[in-house]
Amino acid sequence: MSLDIDWQKLDSELAGHVQQFLNKHFQAITKPSFIGDIQVKDFQWGNEAPQIEITNITEPFPEFYEQEDVDEQDTNAAKAASEDWIDDEDINRVSDHPSSIPPASNATINNTPSTEMDFQVHMLISYKGDMSMTVITELRMNYPSVMFMSLPINLKVRSVEFEATAVVAYIQSMQRVCVSMLEPEDTRAGGAGSKDIGMDRDVHIETVVGDEQKQVLKNVGKIEKFIVDQLRKMLDDELVFPSYQLIQLQ
Q: Per residue in 185-229, pLDDT tens?
């Protein structure tokens, strides 16, 4: 069953939240010495909407019933409030659940039994559109001394293309929604014959190094690869199962 979505509802305000989220990620990463500070200058949703097809409806994964410790909840709530990721009075907290957190030490399986209203939807998402963002940084020359020379870099990330399987679980018994992506080898998505596949992402980047009014260098491969690898790593760390995004409802 296919779904139609109103892509135009994704306005500039929400794009600004995504831009802030990306900037915080790039500020926190470790960069090679030849790359300066990375800043997302602009983010645009584009006009092309993804194609979404529901492939299965199942019971939620057991991991989605994990109960956070109280201290961890308070920390994540404060973090979410500061990031202002989703501005909605019906959503109190959005938190990350990386797979590196040992369930035995930091999280426990909730003893509350599931209800008949708990369910999980598997969706095949295909996107080939004009979503874009502009990234600015600088190329640093550290010889004969540190930052001996620097060149401004402007990267235009566009023509994003990917196909992925998303899972969205509604846990009525805990008043939460969990969102994640599946890797190709994850067979729990629907068993034999399922359409569920992992993420296959591709992006196109146009790079200009130097002042556009003067002589410039174009298509600097190492910097482009670093930016793309960081974007992919961020998606893997934040969304690929067993990591997931949790939306706590009232």
A: 654 544 444 444 445 567 778 777 766 655 555 557 778 888 888
Tokens of 227: 């930016």
Q: Is 91 helix (H, G, I), strand (E, B) or coil?
A: strand
79-125, pLDDT tens digit by residue? 443 344 444 444 343 444 544 333 433 444 445 556 778 999 999 99
pTM score above 0.70: no
pLDDT (0 to 100) of residue 220: 74
Smallest CA-to-CA distance from 95 within 119, 74, 110 is with: 74
Q: What confidence tier does 170 reach under pLDDT thresholds 50, 70, 90? A: very high
Q: Which residues pair with 177 in a beta bridge?
A: 170, 247
How many whole angstroms from its chain centre is CA 203? 15
Domain boundaries, position 76:
2-249
For helices 221-239 and 12-28, angle between their N-to-C axes, nearest 10 degrees: 100
46's CB contacts (< 8 A; 6+ apart) are: 129, 130, 131, 132
Taking the mean position of all CA atoms in its chain, how far away is CA 166? Answer: 12
Domain count of the fold of the chain: 1
Measured between alpha carbons, how far is residue 150 from residues 133, 195, 230 in Å? 23, 48, 22
E strand or H helix at 180, and its extent? strand 176-182
Is 204 in contact with 158 (CB distance < 8 Å)?
Answer: yes
